[in-house]
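Fold this complex.
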Amino acid sequence: GAGVSQTPSNKVTEKGKYVELRCDPISGHTALYWYRQSLGQGPEFLIYFQGTGAADDSGLPNDRFFAVRPEGSVSTLKIQRTERGDSAVYLCASSLNPSFQEQFFGPGTRLTVL
Amino acid sequence: AQSVTQPDIHITVSEGASLELRCNYSYGATPYLFWYVQSPGQGLQLLLKYFSGDTLVQGIKGFEAEFKRSQSSFNLRKPSVHWSDAAEYFCAVGADSNYQLIWGAGTKLIIKP
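Structure:
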């Protein structure tokens, strides 16, 4: 079966532009997580969805970042007025339910802000 | 606050030699502990996890890890590495408030032929 997929795999944008990053979780997984990984660092938690609702968005760095999951499946991470410091790999993970059972990760989207 | 420390940024090991990657955590209660591997261009893959019970846990690809509460450690081991083990390895602790994973900075494993 298909794993977690993320599109695009690479995104280059200019400072100040708006970007959307998409995550397709494994079918039937109710929990979805977004992480950000900067060069030389481990992933950093951004937001966690249970179903359609954002159960915890405490990791979003500021109000330029927003994520949705309108039908409880695909999720989109949206970044407004991008800054060079937003450059990172954005990782999505899903799990069957919100627990510490395995989180399955997608390959990530590498965002470069020029 | 929970935190994870991986003291070694890089480790170089000869093929066939044994491996130990260090991980120390800070957490107030019994932690949920994980090791993931990240190969270039690949997503993070779970190697093994510790929730409770036997402190020596077996994982995929011949890896094992031992939870030592007294040392707040969860070191990853493999008796004989293969060139295909070259990758970056991440230790993580689970936050039971929202199931997020808190990650170490990773250790890059380099295999010498």
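The first strand of chain A starts at residue 5 and ends at 7.
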